[in-house]
Every structure is written in C-alpha cells, then in structure tokens.
C-alpha cells in the first residue's frame, strides 16, 4: 500500500473503524503499513479530537457504535479488572453497607467479594444485574437491588425509581464504574440518566472509589458527565499511563494502582 500522509492516514483509520466497528492496533498497523507506535500516536490524536473512542487494545468509531454493551465489555481487559477488583474487595469490612455501580468491573468486584468468606453481615446495594446475579446465593451477604428502568446495553437500572431508592440509603463505600474518567471533568457516560444516578450514589457514600482500567483514563468519548465529590479515590491497573495518573494527582485525587496478580 502506498505511504499515507499523517492526515490521510488518520482519515483512513476513522474510515476503517467506522466500517468494521472495532479495529485493533495490530490490524491498523498491517493495513496501513506503518508501525504500531505510529498507529498509537494517531489514535491518541483522533481520540483527543473526539473522532474515535479507545477500547482495550484497539479503537472504535463513535459514529458506528457509541456505546459498547455489557456483553462486549465483559470480554475486555480481564486481568486489569481482576487486579482492580481484588484490591477493592480488600477494602471492605464485615458489617458494612456498600454500593456497587453497574458494569463489567463491578461484575468482577462482585465475584471477588464472593471469594472473601470473612465478609459476614455485609449489605450490598447495586443497580447492576450481573452483580445481583453473582451475589444472590452468597451466604452472609444481603443484596438490595435498585429498581427503575432497565438499560439493555448496560444491564443496569436507572431513572427516578432508582434515584429515590438511593436517596433513602447511605453507604460506607461506593464503588463506581465509568465509560471513562477525567481528572477535571469527572466520570463520562453515554447518557444523563447514568450520570445523575452516579452523582446521587457518590453523595450518599462515606468513601468513593472509581474503578477504571488504564485505557479509560483521560478520555472523553461521550458528552454526559458526573460531577465528583470533594474527595474520592481512583483505582486503576499497572497499564495506566504515568502522565495520565499524574493529571489526577495534580488535582488532589488519591490514586491507587492495583498490583498485578500472578
């Protein structure tokens, strides 16, 4: 294939991501005849410009598929989510009331909780169907399901009914998921109902943790944002970029890099 200028190459990347729906760095490198590092630089510029959204190991077009389903996300970044979930579960104390947001990382956290038999008399509140299902038969855990309107893509409940339920509760710890998280803007999601519910959840918690693997940091794939509480903790994995982590620290946000588990 003939060599592309940077501008035409990036246009071709957007075209390929739009027609295929999802493209990996390796696929784009082979198709365009350039190195993987060149593709990564191109993707960084296209993502910053809001033309593409980064995924674990690749890129997708916002125009083609603006929001990945829970089923798709369950297939991404297994090791990173496992490491983050293991650290998060270790923070929970017996007898606490904890909130689990919806999403694939919350599913991993629910699974990690089931592997800690010492967590007795624990109450878990969640809007996510996957977490409900995982915890339903676990001895010593009382599950409170937040009702409301079901979003099929995220397999989670949102809306006024879920919000009213949250307003009647308080939590020792809230563990939040995110489509992406930004040091200054907060949590980015696909729609305003999600961000409104997340803000209420965080406002009712003594401690708030945002669980997000490295590729979700500093991105802005959508236009709905949840405003963060005054104090919160970002929990990510060892793949996170050092500069991205520093941007959170510069904004007085506590950062935890969950150690990799063998």
TrEMBL record:
Q: Which UniProt keywords apply?
A: DNA-binding, Repressor, Transcription, Transcription regulation
**Which InterPro entries does this entry report, sorted A to Z?**
Carb_Metab_HTH_regulators, DeoR-like_C, DeoR_HTH, NagB/RpiA_transferase-like, WH-like_DNA-bd_sf, WH_DNA-bd_sf
> What does the function comment of this entry state?
Repressor of the lactose catabolism operon. Galactose-6-phosphate is the inducer.
Span of domain HTH deoR-type: 6-61
Q: Which SMART domains match?
A: DeoRC, HTH_DEOR
Keyword NADP tagged: no
- Report the Pfam families cross-referenced here: DeoRC, HTH_DeoR
GO molecular function terms listed in the Swiss-Prot or TrEMBL record? DNA binding
Q: What organism is recorded for this protein?
A: Terrabacter terrae
Q: What is this protein called?
A: Lactose phosphotransferase system repressor
């Amino acid at each position: 294939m003939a060599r592309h200028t940077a501008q035409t190459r990036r246009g071709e990347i957007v075209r390929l991501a739009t027609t295929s729906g999802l493209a990996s760095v390796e696929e784009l490198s082979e198709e365009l005849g350039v190195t993987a590092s060149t593709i990564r630089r191109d993707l960084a510029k296209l993502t910053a410009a809001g033309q593409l959204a980064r995924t674990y190991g690749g890129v997708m077009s916002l125009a083609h598929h603006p929001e990945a389903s829970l089923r798709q996300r369950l297939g991404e970044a297994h090791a990173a989510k496992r490491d983050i979930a293991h650290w998060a579960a270790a923070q929970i104390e017996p007898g606490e009331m904890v909130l689990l947001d919806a999403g694939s990382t919350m599913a991993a956290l629910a699974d990690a909780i089931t592997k800690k038999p010492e967590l007795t008399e624990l109450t878990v509140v969640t809007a996510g169907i996957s977490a409900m299902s995982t915890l339903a038969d676990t001895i010593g855990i009382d599950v409170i399901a937040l009702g409301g309107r079901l979003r099929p893509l995220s397999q989670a409940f949102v809306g006024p009914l879920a919000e009213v339920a949250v307003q009647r509760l308080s939590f020792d710890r809230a563990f939040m998921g995110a489509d992406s998280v930004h040091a200054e803007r907060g949590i980015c999601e696909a729609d305003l109902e999600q961000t409104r519910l997340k803000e209420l959840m965080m406002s009712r918690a003594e401690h708030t943790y945002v669980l997000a693997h490295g590729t979700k940091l500093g991105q802005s794939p959508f236009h709905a944002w949840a405003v963060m509480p005054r104090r919160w903790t970002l929990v990510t994995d060892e793949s996170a970029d050092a500069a991205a982590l520093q941007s959170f620290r510069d904004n007085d946000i506590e950062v935890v890099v969950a150690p990799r588990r063998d």
